[in-house]
Amino acid sequence: MFSDRLAEGLAVPVEGWDFSWFDGRATEQRPSWGYARLLADRAASATALLDVQTGGGEVLASVPVLPPVVAATESWEPNLAIARKRLGEVVAHVADDADLPFPDRHFDLVVSRHPVATRWDEIARVLTPGGRYLAQHVGSGTVRELTEFMMGPVTSGRRDRDPLTTRSGVDVVGLVTAAERAGLDVVDVRHEALRMEFFDVAAVVVFLRKVVWTVPGFTVDAYRDRLETLHDFIERHGPFVAHSQRILIEAVR
Protein backbone atom coordinates (compact mmCIF):
# COMPACT_ATOMS: atom_id res chain seq x y z
CA MET A 1 0.00 0.00 0.00
CA PHE A 2 2.76 2.47 0.92
CA SER A 3 4.69 1.82 -2.30
CA ASP A 4 1.50 2.18 -4.32
CA ARG A 5 0.83 5.57 -2.71
CA LEU A 6 4.35 6.75 -3.55
CA ALA A 7 3.99 5.63 -7.15
CA GLU A 8 0.65 7.40 -7.39
CA GLY A 9 2.12 10.63 -6.01
CA LEU A 10 5.01 10.51 -8.46
CA ALA A 11 2.75 9.99 -11.47
CA VAL A 12 0.74 13.22 -11.06
CA PRO A 13 1.80 16.21 -13.24
CA VAL A 14 2.70 19.21 -11.09
CA GLU A 15 2.92 22.07 -13.62
CA GLY A 16 0.69 25.08 -13.05
CA TRP A 17 -1.32 26.04 -9.98
CA ASP A 18 -4.39 23.92 -10.57
CA PHE A 19 -4.99 22.02 -7.32
CA SER A 20 -8.12 20.17 -8.43
CA TRP A 21 -6.31 16.80 -8.19
CA PHE A 22 -6.35 17.17 -4.41
CA ASP A 23 -10.15 16.96 -4.23
CA GLY A 24 -10.87 14.14 -1.79
CA ARG A 25 -7.15 13.75 -1.02
CA ALA A 26 -6.40 16.97 0.87
CA THR A 27 -8.23 20.09 1.98
CA GLU A 28 -7.25 23.68 2.68
CA GLN A 29 -9.51 26.20 4.34
CA ARG A 30 -9.93 29.32 2.20
CA PRO A 31 -9.43 32.87 3.49
CA SER A 32 -12.64 34.61 4.44
CA TRP A 33 -11.98 37.61 2.18
CA GLY A 34 -12.23 35.67 -1.12
CA TYR A 35 -9.30 36.87 -3.21
CA ALA A 36 -10.82 35.91 -6.58
CA ARG A 37 -14.01 37.80 -5.74
CA LEU A 38 -12.05 40.90 -4.71
CA LEU A 39 -9.98 40.69 -7.88
CA ALA A 40 -13.09 40.46 -10.05
CA ASP A 41 -14.57 43.49 -8.29
CA ARG A 42 -11.44 45.63 -8.76
CA ALA A 43 -10.91 44.48 -12.36
CA ALA A 44 -14.44 45.50 -13.37
CA SER A 45 -13.59 49.18 -12.89
CA ALA A 46 -9.94 49.10 -14.04
CA THR A 47 -8.59 50.20 -17.42
CA ALA A 48 -5.22 48.39 -17.36
CA LEU A 49 -4.38 45.33 -15.24
CA LEU A 50 -1.09 43.55 -14.54
CA ASP A 51 -1.02 40.13 -12.85
CA VAL A 52 2.47 39.59 -11.42
CA GLN A 53 3.65 35.95 -11.17
CA THR A 54 0.42 34.62 -12.62
CA GLY A 55 1.38 30.93 -12.30
CA GLY A 56 -0.66 29.10 -14.90
CA GLY A 57 -3.02 32.06 -15.25
CA GLU A 58 -5.78 30.20 -13.44
CA VAL A 59 -6.97 33.06 -11.23
CA LEU A 60 -6.77 35.76 -13.89
CA ALA A 61 -8.67 33.56 -16.35
CA SER A 62 -11.51 33.27 -13.82
CA VAL A 63 -12.19 37.03 -13.83
CA PRO A 64 -15.53 37.54 -15.64
CA VAL A 65 -14.88 41.09 -16.91
CA LEU A 66 -11.31 42.12 -17.73
CA PRO A 67 -10.20 45.69 -18.54
CA PRO A 68 -9.16 46.71 -22.07
CA VAL A 69 -5.44 46.30 -21.26
CA VAL A 70 -4.26 43.08 -19.59
CA ALA A 71 -0.73 41.84 -19.00
CA ALA A 72 0.86 39.18 -16.82
CA THR A 73 4.29 37.89 -15.85
CA GLU A 74 5.56 34.42 -14.98
CA SER A 75 9.07 33.13 -14.32
CA TRP A 76 8.80 29.34 -14.37
CA GLU A 77 8.77 27.99 -17.92
CA PRO A 78 6.35 25.06 -17.35
CA ASN A 79 3.86 27.54 -15.84
CA LEU A 80 4.61 30.06 -18.60
CA ALA A 81 3.52 27.61 -21.28
CA ILE A 82 0.27 26.87 -19.43
CA ALA A 83 -0.42 30.56 -18.80
CA ARG A 84 0.15 31.49 -22.45
CA LYS A 85 -2.13 28.68 -23.58
CA ARG A 86 -4.79 30.01 -21.23
CA LEU A 87 -4.26 33.78 -21.58
CA GLY A 88 -2.31 34.24 -24.81
CA GLU A 89 0.88 36.18 -25.49
CA VAL A 90 0.01 38.84 -22.90
CA VAL A 91 2.12 36.76 -20.47
CA ALA A 92 5.74 37.95 -20.34
CA HIS A 93 8.60 35.72 -19.21
CA VAL A 94 10.04 37.68 -16.27
CA ALA A 95 12.16 36.51 -13.34
CA ASP A 96 10.50 36.94 -9.96
CA ASP A 97 13.02 39.52 -8.77
CA ALA A 98 13.57 41.31 -12.11
CA ASP A 99 12.46 44.73 -13.30
CA LEU A 100 9.00 44.73 -14.85
CA PRO A 101 9.14 45.25 -18.65
CA PHE A 102 6.42 47.90 -18.71
CA PRO A 103 6.38 51.72 -18.87
CA ASP A 104 6.03 53.98 -15.84
CA ARG A 105 2.45 54.69 -14.67
CA HIS A 106 1.00 52.14 -17.08
CA PHE A 107 -1.48 50.15 -14.92
CA ASP A 108 -4.22 51.29 -12.59
CA LEU A 109 -4.46 47.79 -11.08
CA VAL A 110 -1.58 45.44 -10.22
CA VAL A 111 -2.45 42.11 -8.63
CA SER A 112 -0.61 39.02 -7.45
CA ARG A 113 -1.61 35.79 -5.76
CA HIS A 114 1.15 34.13 -3.73
CA PRO A 115 4.15 36.01 -5.18
CA VAL A 116 7.52 34.41 -4.54
CA ALA A 117 9.29 37.80 -4.43
CA THR A 118 7.82 41.28 -4.48
CA ARG A 119 9.57 44.19 -6.19
CA TRP A 120 7.73 46.98 -4.40
CA ASP A 121 9.73 49.64 -6.22
CA GLU A 122 8.66 48.22 -9.57
CA ILE A 123 5.03 47.87 -8.52
CA ALA A 124 4.97 51.52 -7.47
CA ARG A 125 6.70 52.55 -10.70
CA VAL A 126 4.19 50.91 -13.06
CA LEU A 127 1.12 52.01 -11.10
CA THR A 128 -0.71 55.16 -12.14
CA PRO A 129 -1.28 57.82 -9.46
CA GLY A 130 -4.26 56.50 -7.55
CA GLY A 131 -3.57 53.02 -8.95
CA ARG A 132 -4.14 50.03 -6.72
CA TYR A 133 -2.12 46.94 -5.68
CA LEU A 134 -4.18 43.94 -4.52
CA ALA A 135 -2.45 40.74 -3.49
CA GLN A 136 -2.68 37.64 -1.38
CA HIS A 137 0.73 36.79 0.08
CA VAL A 138 1.99 33.61 1.70
CA GLY A 139 2.74 34.23 5.38
CA SER A 140 5.88 33.00 7.07
CA GLY A 141 5.47 29.61 8.69
CA THR A 142 3.01 28.25 6.12
CA VAL A 143 2.78 24.44 6.37
CA ARG A 144 5.46 24.57 9.07
CA GLU A 145 4.07 21.36 10.59
CA LEU A 146 4.83 19.43 7.40
CA THR A 147 8.23 21.08 6.93
CA GLU A 148 9.25 20.14 10.48
CA PHE A 149 7.86 16.60 10.19
CA MET A 150 10.03 16.03 7.13
CA MET A 151 13.13 18.08 8.00
CA GLY A 152 13.17 18.42 11.77
CA PRO A 153 12.45 21.44 14.00
CA VAL A 154 12.92 24.97 12.68
CA THR A 155 14.62 26.86 15.50
CA SER A 156 15.23 30.57 15.92
CA GLY A 157 18.93 29.95 15.39
CA ARG A 158 18.36 28.18 12.11
CA ARG A 159 16.22 30.53 10.05
CA ASP A 160 17.71 28.95 6.94
CA ARG A 161 15.66 25.87 7.80
CA ASP A 162 12.45 27.87 7.42
CA PRO A 163 11.71 27.69 3.66
CA LEU A 164 8.82 30.15 3.85
CA THR A 165 11.08 32.79 5.42
CA THR A 166 13.91 32.36 2.94
CA ARG A 167 11.71 31.75 -0.10
CA SER A 168 8.46 33.67 -0.06
CA GLY A 169 7.08 33.94 3.45
CA VAL A 170 6.40 37.37 4.90
CA ASP A 171 4.91 38.83 8.05
CA VAL A 172 2.26 41.52 8.24
CA VAL A 173 4.52 44.24 9.66
CA GLY A 174 7.26 43.58 7.09
CA LEU A 175 4.75 43.60 4.26
CA VAL A 176 3.20 46.92 5.27
CA THR A 177 6.61 48.50 5.89
CA ALA A 178 7.91 47.45 2.46
CA ALA A 179 4.82 48.81 0.71
CA GLU A 180 5.00 52.14 2.50
CA ARG A 181 8.71 52.52 1.81
CA ALA A 182 7.91 52.22 -1.90
CA GLY A 183 5.47 55.10 -1.62
CA LEU A 184 2.21 53.16 -1.37
CA ASP A 185 -0.57 53.83 1.12
CA VAL A 186 -1.84 50.59 2.65
CA VAL A 187 -5.64 50.74 2.86
CA ASP A 188 -6.33 47.16 3.95
CA VAL A 189 -4.30 44.32 5.45
CA ARG A 190 -5.61 41.06 6.93
CA HIS A 191 -4.04 37.81 8.14
CA GLU A 192 -5.52 34.36 8.68
CA ALA A 193 -4.14 30.95 9.66
CA LEU A 194 -6.01 28.26 7.75
CA ARG A 195 -6.35 24.54 8.45
CA MET A 196 -4.97 22.03 5.95
CA GLU A 197 -5.50 18.26 6.01
CA PHE A 198 -3.67 15.55 4.04
CA PHE A 199 -5.64 12.30 3.83
CA ASP A 200 -2.91 10.08 2.36
CA VAL A 201 0.80 10.15 1.67
CA ALA A 202 0.28 10.41 -2.10
CA ALA A 203 -1.26 13.84 -1.53
CA VAL A 204 1.79 14.83 0.52
CA VAL A 205 4.13 13.70 -2.26
CA VAL A 206 2.24 15.69 -4.89
CA PHE A 207 2.14 18.76 -2.65
CA LEU A 208 5.88 18.64 -1.94
CA ARG A 209 6.66 18.17 -5.64
CA LYS A 210 4.39 21.08 -6.52
CA VAL A 211 5.13 23.56 -3.73
CA VAL A 212 8.86 22.94 -3.87
CA TRP A 213 9.99 25.41 -1.19
CA THR A 214 8.09 23.55 1.56
CA VAL A 215 10.92 20.99 1.72
CA PRO A 216 13.78 22.28 -0.47
CA GLY A 217 15.38 19.54 -2.54
CA PHE A 218 12.57 17.09 -1.83
CA THR A 219 12.69 13.72 -3.57
CA VAL A 220 10.83 10.55 -2.65
CA ASP A 221 14.10 8.62 -2.40
CA ALA A 222 15.72 11.14 -0.04
CA TYR A 223 12.67 11.29 2.25
CA ARG A 224 11.34 7.77 1.91
CA ASP A 225 11.75 6.93 5.61
CA ARG A 226 9.91 10.07 6.73
CA LEU A 227 7.18 9.45 4.15
CA GLU A 228 6.69 5.91 5.43
CA THR A 229 6.43 7.21 8.99
CA LEU A 230 3.88 9.77 7.81
CA HIS A 231 1.94 7.07 5.95
CA ASP A 232 1.77 4.98 9.14
CA PHE A 233 0.65 8.03 11.15
CA ILE A 234 -2.21 8.79 8.74
CA GLU A 235 -3.29 5.13 8.65
CA ARG A 236 -3.48 5.03 12.46
CA HIS A 237 -4.62 8.52 13.43
CA GLY A 238 -6.30 10.08 10.40
CA PRO A 239 -5.36 13.16 8.37
CA PHE A 240 -2.10 14.99 8.91
CA VAL A 241 -2.99 18.56 9.91
CA ALA A 242 -1.00 21.67 9.03
CA HIS A 243 -1.80 25.35 8.64
CA SER A 244 -1.27 27.83 5.85
CA GLN A 245 -0.71 31.52 6.58
CA ARG A 246 -2.33 34.03 4.21
CA ILE A 247 -2.07 37.81 4.16
CA LEU A 248 -4.29 40.10 2.10
CA ILE A 249 -2.89 43.53 1.31
CA GLU A 250 -4.38 46.38 -0.68
CA ALA A 251 -2.42 49.57 -1.27
CA VAL A 252 -2.80 52.71 -3.36
CA ARG A 253 -0.12 54.77 -5.07
Automatic annotation (TrEMBL):
BP GO annotations: methylation
Gene3D superfamilies in alphabetical order: Vaccinia Virus protein VP39
Highest taxon in the source lineage: Bacteria
Keywords, in A-Z order: Methyltransferase, Transferase
Methyltransferase type domain residues: 50-134
CDD domains reported in the protein's UniProt record: AdoMet_MTases
GO molecular function: S-adenosylmethionine-dependent methyltransferase activity
Keyword rRNA processing belongs to the record: no
Pfam families: Methyltransf_11 (PF08241)
Keyword Transferase (UniProt): yes
Name of the protein described by the UniProt record: Methyltransferase domain-containing protein
Lineage of source species: Bacteria, Bacillati, Actinomycetota, Actinomycetes, Streptosporangiales
